[in-house]
Amino acid sequence: MPAPAPTRILTAEGAPRGGLAALCVTQTAGWGVLYYALIAAVRPISEDTGWDPALVTGAFSTGLLVSAVAGIVVGRILDRTGPRALMIGGSLVGVLALAVVAMAPNLPVFFAAWVLAGTAQAAVLYQPAFTVISRWYGPARLRPLTILTLVAGFASTIFAPATAALSGWLGWRATFLVLAGLLGLVTVPLHARYLNRSWNRTPHKDPAAPARKRVSATRRSPEFLGLQALMVLLCLGLYTVTLNIIPLLTEKGANYATAALGLGLVGAGQVGGRLLFGSIPAGARLPVITGAGATAVLLLAALPGPTPVLIAVGVLAGAVRGCQTLLQATVVGDRWGSQDLGALQGVFAAPLTAVTAIAPAAGPLLAGWFGTYTAMAYAMAAAAGAAAVIAGVTSRRARKIHADVR
Predict the structure, then answer these.
(1) What percent of the chain has pLDDT over 90?
(2) CA distances from 34 to 38, 201, 291 (A)
(3) Which of 91, 112, 223, 269 is most buried as measured by Cβ atoms within 10 A of its Cβ?
(4) What is the pTM of this model?
(5) In three state form, how does the secondary structure of the chain look?
(6) How would you classify residue 133: left for phi > 0, otherwise alpha for psi between -120 and 50, otherwise beta?
(7) Binning pLDDT at 50, 70 and 90, where does residue 214 land?
(8) What pLDDT was estimated at residue 203?
(9) 103 CB contacts (<8 Å, ≥6 apart)?
């Protein structure tokens, strides 16, 4: 007789009027300033300082790895205290970090600044925002989560060219000071005005089961670990290939302009994926998304190029990435509810954040190991295929348990 499914508590706190719009603005600013600005500024930073571009990018990746670890602690704090003080604090830490980035006299200080920025990313970007939306809207959270990710998806469109233009006009150091000020002026007042000081008391909480024990039991459960493993494998396959799609396509005969277009269309595909996510039945999302991801990566490896079909497959891979973002935002709440959601979401997302941090460098390393970018893509297709297999087994097991309970 299978064990009964865990109780899923998904109560709503009540979203403040204007709260979703405020989060859309702060997420767009946060992603633009704390993430995309550095990507756009690698070249001017390297040319001005003489630092190797790989080391400049390495500092940024180090910050992302720190954010993965810090997100676990942030999630626990978020459950206990509510989001207002935490996310205001994260914004202020981000302002300080970017100011240190701007004034860094040498590479070690530059690295230290991005380590500090990583803690800010953990406190102000998607993971805490996903928890806030889930607490505000309860079972109705999918639509606001979709809106949030669609709007914030324009962060690169706004901030990458703006950072490049400002760097050419003011220099990169002054640009990061401007961005630091912008982050503080935009996010701190909106977080202070619209975020909860503390969460409403949850009447369903069992006082005999401390939160830490509940979280520990859940995070060690086979269901949680299996779900986390398949998401890590899917992210590894998707991000390693799509973030290295330019060398992959050029290896297949595309010129640089066509390959760059392919990368841009991957980004456009993400928007379509987020729009389509809600149309996939909830019970089918895991197998459908992982299956589509494995298929897209395999086709990127197998198809000859350059062909329009290959570019179209890149759009499909981008759409799966868009769906994956919303899957990551909803899957924990779908299974374990909003109780302890911040802590569980932080633990769940940590390895996913780490994978996205190492994916840009993993592509060239694996291509060097296997001999070609095409061989790297085949290896990543195997990783995504393993995720699809786990998803299929998980879905069949869930259907069997449901049938047995009925």
Answers:
(1) 51
(2) 7, 33, 32
(3) 91
(4) 0.81
(5) CCCCCCCCECCCCCCCCCHHHHHHHHHHHHHHHHHHHHHHHHHHHHHHHCCCHHHHHHHHHHHHHHHHHHHHHHHHHHHHHCHHHHHHHHHHHHHHHHHHHHHCCCHHHHHHHHHHHHHHHHHHCHHHHHHHHHHHHHHHCHHHHHHHHHHHCCHHHHHHHHHHHHHHHHCHHHHHHHHHHHHHHHHHHHHHHHCCCCCCCCCCCCCCCCHHHHHHHHHCCHHHHHHHHHHHHHHHHHHHHHCCHHHHHHHCCCCHHHHHHHHHHHHHHHHHHHHHHCCCCHHHHHHHHHHHHHHHHHHHHHCCCCCHHHHHHHHHHHHHHHHHHHHHHHHHHHHHECCCHHHHHHHHHHHHHHHHHHHHHHHHHHHHHHCCHHHHHHHHHHHHHHHHHHHHHHHHHHHHHHHHHC
(6) alpha
(7) confident
(8) 41
(9) 173
From CA 52, how far away is CA 260, in angstroms rounded? 23
Task: Report the distance separating Cα 35 and Cα 266, nearest Å.
Answer: 18
Nearest to 152 by CA among 286, 16, 15, 20: 20
Of 250, 277, 248, nearest to 370 by C-alpha is 248
CA distance 347 to 258: 39
**Alpha carbon 86 to chain centroid distance?**
19
pLDDT surpasses 50 at 246 = yes
Q: Name which residue leads in pLDDT, 271 or 120.
A: 120
Task: Please report, rounded to a whole number, the percentage of residues in the chain having pLDDT higher than 70.
Answer: 91
Please name the amino acid found at residue 275.
L
Which of the pair, 199 or 26, is modelled with greater confidence? 26
Count of residues in the chain = 406
Single-letter amino acid, residue 38: L
Q: Does pLDDT of 91 surpass 90? A: yes
Q: What is the C-alpha to C-alpha distance for residues 177 and 245, in angstroms, rounded to an integer?
A: 32
